[in-house]
Design goal:
The protein is mainly β. The protein contains one helix and 32 strands. The protein binds 2-acetamido-2-deoxy-beta-D-glucopyranose (4 copies). One 2-acetamido-2-deoxy-beta-D-glucopyranose (NAG) binds at residues 21, 24-25, 64-66.
């Protein structure tokens, strides 16, 4: 009994199945259950980068219908409960604004009443990585070395770089031949002043970075100046003085060399890596006009000429208070330096019988006094002056006989 019931049921199922198959061949759209629920797939993936080309595919598994007779429509949820119909199922260069919920609908061509919708798929669009432009310096001088570094946030490899310089019309000129991540100027010129930006691109995804922010590089001109430094506060230079001539170039002096010239002399006086030239003991032959040149590679700046005046050493004059004196007289010897000098000390000498000048080492005043002369004070005296803070001497006074 149990077995016969089961047999009957199996027979019924078999009859129904065959009837279905007959109708399948006779009339295509007469059946409502032929369309299966479609599936939306997103390629290359549901999470993509800005700029990727994204393709949406919708597939209904309907075996009984020829795919050509099916119409697919793609939708995007604009806001919850509002939708837009996409014109294309391919999005070229996807943007952030394209992110959202997508789904598709399939319908049979002959019978639009029969339609099926897919599940919704979230499409996420990652922002392109950011490019950052870092200059080694933004305020430089002609001839300086400048490096611009372009970097992409995140750990990406295999990028090439685009470099732009903004022109006067605010158009960004692309340095098409240059694709490295570092742009170097070995020696900037004034025309390198300007606004730079960079970005990066790659053959695979993500395809491009965002542009870096614009960076302004200002290139300043330079001038050279020759400055003369003497040890004396009044700026006067005497024979024997030390004189320094400093060639100064504006801006960063790294990598510059200096040349010193005398205008009357065609030949270069001296070349140096340091900017200061020192004449340790000026002589009258050093008199003249000097100028200098600051040099870096083929670039150079010349100073204006500066005069160097070397004065003869001041004269010391020895004056006795009385030309003829007698034993017991009070006598004063005055030593004086021509010109207005201060802070000098004095040297006193007395010539001995062998014509050697004996130096009174302990006495440095400008007046040498005898309260009461004796016979042995008779003799030849001379004086000179010197300054403690410089190796400078006055000329010796002429010898005075007392
Ligand atoms: C299929 O059947 C429907 C009615 O069920 C009819 O309207 C339609 O014309 C038929 N199509 C064909 C191709 O016979
Ligand atoms: C039913 O129709 C589909 C296509 O519409 C066809 O591939 C299939 O062979 C048909 N079934 C039978 C049993 O004829
Ligand atoms: C980056 O800047 C260049 C030059 O202005 C421009 O042509 C390009 O469209 C910009 N790229 C992006 C992703 O904004
Ligand atoms: C001045 O005279 C002294 C003593 O003769 C001598 O040693 C010195 O060199 C002289 N100085 C100058 C500047 O001639």
């Amino acid at each position: 009994m149990q077995t016969s019931k089961l047999y009957l049921l199996l027979c019924l199922v078999a009859v129904m199945t065959s009837a279905q198959n007959e109708r399948n061949t006779s009339n295509v759209s007469s059946k409502k259950t032929e369309l299966t629920k479609p599936k939306l797939t997103v390629s290359p993936s549901e999470t993509v980068w800005e700029g990727d080309d994204v393709t949406l595919s919708c597939k209904s598994e309907s075996k009984q219908l020829e795919q050509t007779k099916l119409i697919y429509t793609f939708y995007r949820e604009k806001e919850p409960r509002s939708q837009i119909i996409l014109q294309e199922n391919k999005i070229l260069s996807i943007q952030q604004s394209h992110a959202g919920m997508y789904w598709c609908m399939v319908e049979a061509k002959e019978r639009t009443a029969e339609r099926k919708e897919s599940d919704k798929v979230q499409v996420t669009v990652n922002e392109s990585p950011m490019a950052t432009l870092t200059p080694s310096n933004t305020y430089v001088y002609i001839g300086d070395r400048v490096k611009l570094d372009c970097k992409i946030d995140g750990s990406f490899t295999g990028w090439k770089y685009r470099w732009y310089k903004r022109d006067k019309k605010a158009r960004d000129e692309h340095f098409e031949k240059f694709t490295e991540n570092t742009y170097k100027f070995e020696a900037v010129t004034e025309s390198d002043s300007g606004v730079y930006l960079c970005s990066a691109y790659k053959a695979d995804s993500p395809h491009f970075s965002k542009n870096s922010s614009a960076v302004t590089v200002t290139v300043e001109g330079r001038t050279a100046k020759l400055e003369m430094k003497a040890e004396r506060t009044d700026g006067k230079i005497f024979e024997g003085d030390q004189v320094s001539l400093q060639c100064q170039v504006t801006g960063n002096p790294v990598g510059w060399t200096y040349e010193l010239y005398k205008t009357t002399d065609k030949n270069q006086y001296e070349t140096k890596a340091e900017s200061t030239f020192t004449i340790s003991s000026a002589s009258l032959s050093h008199r003249g006009e000097y100028w200098c040149k600051a040099v870096k590679g083929t670039l150079y700046f010349s100073s204006s000429p500066v005069p160097l005046q070397v004065s003869e050493s001041p004269m010391a004059t020895l004056t006795p208070s009385n030309p003829y004196v007698y034993i017991g007289d009070k006598v004063k010897l005055d030593c004086k330096i021509d010109g207005s000098f201060t802070g000098w000390k004095y040297r006193w000498y007395k010539r001995d019988k062998k014509a050697r000048d004996e130096h009174f080492e302990k006495f440095t005043e400008n007046t040498y006094k005898f309260e009461a002369v004796t016979r042995s004070d008779s003799g030849v005296y001379l004086c000179s002056a010197y300054k403690a803070d410089s190796p400078h001497f006055s000329k010796n006074s002429s010898a005075v006989t007392v």
